[in-house]
Design a protein that fits this description.
single chain
């Protein structure tokens, strides 16, 4: 999974000159989930491919990819050892897909509530979501549930029990979702946690 994410990121970087109608990276836009993807069964493959796309823009570059892949490695390896490669892969991919299905549906509802009629025609394409965060959050919370007394290093320094890390992740995403949802898909994280 980490290698596939890395390859897709390189493809995004090398195609960074190609832009969609809204000025976004074409590969990110093509593989990512849009708010109206839920209404387009011919594009439902995006619920899966969005989990392999990360922001290629210079402001965020490797940060999104790095922390998702670090989480996948640190929490995914023990889960893969426990459940086996196929079962963990199934768990991870289902978490990714469910997170994006909920995001698409909820943001389509937001568009219908907030957007003026003349803008609504392309609003579903304007909103875009991608990243492995839903699957990584699912793996992290499952690890915390299975190994609650394991010691993790918060901020790579402070030793804390895994159950506390899981609790903080859930609380952070709940409170984040109550604030301004712009830029971070808290709902995708929360679906992964569930």
């Amino acid at each position: 999974m980490i290698i596939i994410n890395g390859i897709v990121f390189l493809v995004e970087l090398f195609s960074n000159g190609a832009r969609d109608a809204f000025g976004r990276n074409y590969v990110s836009s093509m593989l990512g989930v849009h708010a109206d993807t839920i209404l387009q069964p011919w594009n439902w493959w995006q619920f899966l491919t969005a989990g392999f796309v990360h922001d290629p823009e210079p402001a965020h570059n490797l940060q999104h990819l790095f922390f998702n892949m670090l989480g996948l490695y640190c929490f995914g390896m023990p889960l893969e050892d426990r459940y086996g490669r196929r079962e963990f892969l199934r768990f991870y991919l289902i978490s990714v897909v469910l997170g994006f299905v909920v995001w698409s549906a909820s943001h389509l509802v937001l568009i219908n509530q907030r957007v003026a009629a003349e803008f609504a025609a392309d609003a579903g394409q304007r909103m875009l979501c991608y990243g492995a965060s839903g699957g990584v959050t699912a793996a992290t919370i499952l690890f915390c549930l299975l190994y609650p007394r394991a010691t993790l290093l918060a901020a790579f320094v402070i030793p804390v029990p895994a159950w506390l890390v899981g609790l903080v992740i859930i609380a952070q995403n709940i409170f984040g979702s109550l604030g301004s949802p712009e830029g971070i898909a808290y709902d995708v994280h929360l679906v992964g946690a569930v």
